Amino acid sequence: MTNIPNATATLDRYQSTPGVPDEALDADGRFRDHWSHVGPALEALGTEELRQRHDDVRRLLEADGASYRIASSPQAQLWQLDPIPMVLSSSEWATIESGIHQRAVLLDLVLRDLYGPRTLLTRGMLPPELVFEHPGFIRACDGIQLSDGSQLFTYAADLGRDGDGTYRVIADHAQAPSGSGYALENRLALSRVFPSLYRDAQVHHVAPYFRSLRAGLQALAAHRSDDPRIVVLSPGTHSETAFEHAFLASYLGFSLVEGADLVVRDGSVFMRALGRLEPIDVILRRVDSDWCDPLELRGESRLGIPGLLEACRRGNIAVVNTVGSGAIENPALNAFLPAIAKALLGQELRLNGPDTWWCGNPSDLRYVLEHLDQLVCKVISRDEPERSRFGASLSATERDELRARILSAPARWVAQEPLPLSSSPTMTADGVRPRRTVLRTYAVARENSFTVMPGGLTRAAPDADTLRISNQAGAIAKDTWVLASEPEQPSDLWLRGTPTVSDPHALETLSERAAENLFWFGRYAERAESVLRLLRAVHDRRNTESPTVEGQWAVDALLQTLSLVTYSNPGFFDEDHLLHPDVELFALSADAERPGSLAFSVTKFLEAADAVRDQLSADTWQITSTLERQLEILAATPVHRQDVIQGTLGVIMQSFLALHGLAAESMVRDSGWHFMEVGRRIERLVHVSELLRAAFEFERDTPTDALVLESVLVAAESIITYRRRYRTHGEVETMLDLLIADPGNPRSIRYQIDRVAEAVAGLPGRGLGGPSPEERHVLDLSSAIRSIDTAALAKSEDKQRHGLADALDDLMGIARALASEIGDRNFTHMPPQHVLATNSFGRQWD
Amino acid sequence: MRRYRVVHTTTYRYQSKVSLSYGQLCVLPREFDGQRCMSSQVEVMPAPGDTRQRVDFFGNRVAYFAVETAHDTLEITADSEVEVSGPRPGRFDEPAASRSTAEAIDALADVVGEQRVETAHYRLDSPRITTDERVHEYAHPSFDDDRPVIEALQDLFQRIHRDFSFDPKATSVSSTIDDLFEHGAGVCQDFAHLAVGCLRSQSLPARYVSGYLETIPPPGKKKIVGADVSHAWVDAFVPDLGWVGIDPTNDQFVNDRYITTAWGRDYGDVSPLKGVIFSNGGKTELDVSVDVRPL
Asked: The CATH number of the domain where A399 resides is what?
């Protein structure tokens, strides 16, 4: 777009695209009334400041770990949020709100009918083929409804403007509408970056919507319990919107679970909590219907719970949205909804879809085939790839192909009048530019009505020409500001909510999977830090040592120690690697595929953290996103750039130090913390033992050993204390005192054993009576460490310290046995799920 | 009017222990004009912790069960007594039977209300039955415009019977119509899928029916217990006549020796047993025994 300066130009010389209505500017290029505050205020900031704020937005999102996963990409990417909000006037919002409300009520009635009496079909108000051809209509869900008879719990609609500026519904979302959590995150970020602008603009708050969501979920099981157990069912950390699942779970205060965390017993749903089954009353479902129950739906699904539909039928669990709700995500419905609204509600439909022709109807089909070049053709189901075809942009051959496809299954096709959509000022690399936008609005069922979120998730196209707007195609989100006609009361999730119900069991509702991930969170964090410290000590020794023979020998000894500690075989026991250590050293830092490397442990740590997102403090995400970035940098750095590598390692170290700070000061000492703590302590115990054994089992000449000893003390973060305490010179015996036996040194084995004892005592499910198997291992560790005589261990025989090796092996053996005991007793691993083979043969009759 | 006792036993023997097992069984006779179920019971060994019977979307009887104790053998026995009166006598003499196929298809337009909704499922493609070009072409010769629709149905099952041979090794439970064309052989399930596809390709509603067929031993031989099998055939919808059962496997219209358990769009809707188990894998041996005994 050319950019001609002009007297009425506003907002960084922002100009709308000729012929495309703009949200901020009127036809004369002046701010619209409802932009009269926000527009000039943003304009006054200027481009540079706006860019600055955009960076602030990114930093905040990064700190919150707000990510989104593109299906084709292995890595989650940062959520893209524009610094310029979408602004809606109070009066226009009133129209939208009433339209969304009516549409939600209507679609709920349609769903109730489709999975109930189906009178819409028998009375001819909806052609049966239109419903039955849609994969979202799931026959097994027939008759399943919520306790109050309703079907639709959350609803979202994508809205776009038509040529007259009227909002139309581009798509209805009922399967498991996503994005409300991102809308909340958008608000949190933007209101922090523009505090005074946000305050002065008098924007409707979105928190009340989430309060309704929470209260609505509780009400679903009100007939079963005063304090219903509610979980958020996620497909897992690889889901596109995994961030949102965890974010919503922790914001609402529910457990985040995956299918394997739940089990159906006696027709009810339970969570595999630590040591027992915890009954569940409500599931907020983010797994698509088809994948929810491998017994009755897709047998290959590992994301669901066998028997879930049976539990739904018996009314023992409320799953929302109800399985099968995807049936109304059908654009062909638009052709029939106006008449259905009149019949069921006695009202005109307030919010229409685009003009729609369903090809299953012969006269519609004829019209569509005659006007292919003017219409958008879609398959009625969202599962189809490449679902929208803009007739105008197709070649003659493509149009013929489309015609043939439609004719082969007309009931599966729908055609709509394309919507021109409006544009909104959006920050781009070239400054503020018009981008087409779509607004997703949300409603949640509440006491036979719906609460509409005042706001929503606006998405802008990534470039000037795009009309199809989706996150998968790189859309940019915008916070959506609905202007209030009067100032809003302060509001947050917890204010003016339902009466407080304290949850005495909250500490024990940790799922086994969450507990296991916290255990490994602790172990991998420690493993990463230990390897990192050793890598740095080796690096320092290589760089500071003048090239003496002993210096070289010490470096060699340390490199081989590194190989032993990281279980690398042959590692530096290979002559070539020892002569040219850089490549192997780099691999031990940066190769995430290599078990034992720093990058491997950090990656595993991040996976564990991701899996327990809802359990961790929000500050954790700043640390994990830093770690993710450092791993990327590390992997992309050439081996010879030691400066970059060391810098990166430094940042990673700081991140782990910050993490320890959080674990110490920001985590409640509940079962989860104790699992993390015991994992971390066992890991450090094993690491210090491995390090000492690898470095000192064999005695070298004194000058070499003195250098090795110093580096080991550096790697074990004990050099300063050692120097202060033993001023003269380094000796193996005194070093062993400090690193093995000293109860006051947070890096000593003795210290780890004391902490392991405390952490084990804090694990759940300690029975009465004698010591548990874990406690027996702890007693073994305590007696083993008390019987150690460091003077004797320091002695060698034929240059080998057998006593040291044996004592450390003994300690490591007990520690590893303890770790597996904790695993066996707390984390039951279900054997894998299989589909039962079946058979049905007929035989000829003669 | 015939009466039968049907005992259908399915036994799974697992190489490694199964800790948890869920199943959905669809082997109990359904009731409709032409068949009554006098009694039926299901026994699952080891005893399930939870079990319940219900009627599914298509009106079939299904039983849910969950075995929550570790086991290496699972045995499911369904034992039913059925009274079959068979199709309405003289129906082929009714005027609707002598309509041409084209007239019958035209008459579909007058089908409204619940029957319209019920038949709609059976006019569309279903997960295991796609009416592609090949199916369409195969069906075409049977549905000559002038031929009465009942003769067209007969011609269709006769042709399938003639063109394909019966061979349990040629196909498997998950085979498609394409597989049948490719091998030129299959079992009742494959023939029924093809016949359903052919009827739908002509716009006639058709459904897949599962059940049993009384077998008659060769003269002089004794009937062997458990040697019967589950069977599958096809119901075609003829306006004003109703559902007409055809059996391409045995080259005949369905009669009162056919015991119906369930119907649906294709095998997937009426699979006799669906199950999910948790185990460490290994081999599973499956043994099915069916005994159909006239009473």
From this structure: 3.30.1490.270
